[in-house]
């Protein structure tokens, strides 16, 4: 009888300890600690079957290439707008290839999307999303601040960036590319190989959202308030919105 009592007591104590641990367990983020995914490389696919290299940088996992899907992740086609006049202040989701040249620009620089495509919240593969402004800020901070981060994110192969390509050795393999932009006003293409622009998902008002820009001739990354009708590149980040 005494043995049974001891066994019951041990079982009860074990249940109490297990229950207590479960109640007090927390995520690394809640403890002020963050996982470090740096150096992690993988591959994902979008709904069109395009493959993308992914890279871990600090506590985040990013696409290592610009997005080039023609469809939202629910299968909806994104209109490809060729005409400058139709792109001009078009308030609907749209994408294009720089200079409407998919043969040369698709696989290198990816697509240019307006913010209305981003705002659908369905642009990235399932399980990924267009990064918030705050998530870009986390990346920039991890890389030493806005004065250095652009140089650490650039693809350092000069065949893509125009000289002088001021950068650092790209240890993180983000390979930011100068995909240029398509401006909302008049729908003109501008500055391929001179600059790269990337949307955030963070809206400012009905007409503007935050973006990030890297230029060929310095190592900065700049935060801008950009008109929603501009055509910019997109990088996706892993996780829910």
Offer a concise description of the structure:
With 241 residues, the chain is α+β, with helices and mostly antiparallel strands. The protein contains six helices and twelve strands.
Comma- or semicolon-separated keywords:
12 strands; globular; single chain; alpha+beta; 6 helices; three-stranded antiparallel beta sheet; disordered N terminus; 21% strand; 241 residues
Folded structure, characterized:
By secondary structure, the protein is an alpha+beta fold. It has one domain (41-238). Helices cover 24% and strands 21% of the residues. It contains 6 helices and 12 strands. Strand 2 and strand 3 form a beta hairpin. Residues 1-32 have low confidence and may be disordered.
Which segments are poorly predicted (pLDDT under 50) over 5 or more consecutive residues? 1-32
Structural class: alpha+beta
Strand content: 15-25%
Shape: globular
């Amino acid at each position: 009888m005494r043995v049974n009592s001891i066994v019951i007591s041990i079982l009860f104590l074990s249940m109490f300890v297990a229950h207590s641990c479960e109640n007090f367990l927390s995520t690394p983020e809640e403890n002020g600690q963050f996982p470090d995914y740096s150096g992690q490389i993988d591959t994902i696919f979008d709904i069109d079957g395009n493959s993308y290299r992914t890279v871990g940088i600090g506590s985040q996992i990013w696409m290592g290439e610009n997005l080039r899907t023609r469809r939202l992740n629910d299968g909806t086609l994104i209109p490809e707008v060729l005409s400058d006049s139709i792109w001009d202040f078009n308030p609907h989701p749209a994408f294009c290839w720089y200079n409407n040249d998919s043969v040369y620009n698709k696989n290198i620089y990816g697509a240019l999307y307006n913010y209305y495509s981003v705002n659908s919240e369905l642009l990235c593969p399932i399980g990924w999303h267009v990064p918030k402004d705050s998530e870009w800020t986390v990346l920039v901070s991890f890389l030493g601040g806005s004065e250095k981060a652009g140089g650490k994110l650039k693809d350092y192969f000069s065949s893509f960036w125009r000289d002088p390509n001021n950068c650092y050795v790209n240890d993180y393999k983000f390979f930011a590319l100068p995909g240029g932009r398509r401006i909302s006003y008049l729908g003109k293409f501008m500055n391929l190989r001179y600059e790269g622009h990337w949307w955030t998902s963070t809206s400012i008002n009905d007409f503007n959202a935050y973006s990030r820009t890297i230029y060929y001739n310095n190592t900065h990354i700049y935060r801008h308030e950009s008109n929603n009708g501009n055509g910019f590149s997109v990088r996706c980040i892993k996780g829910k919105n």
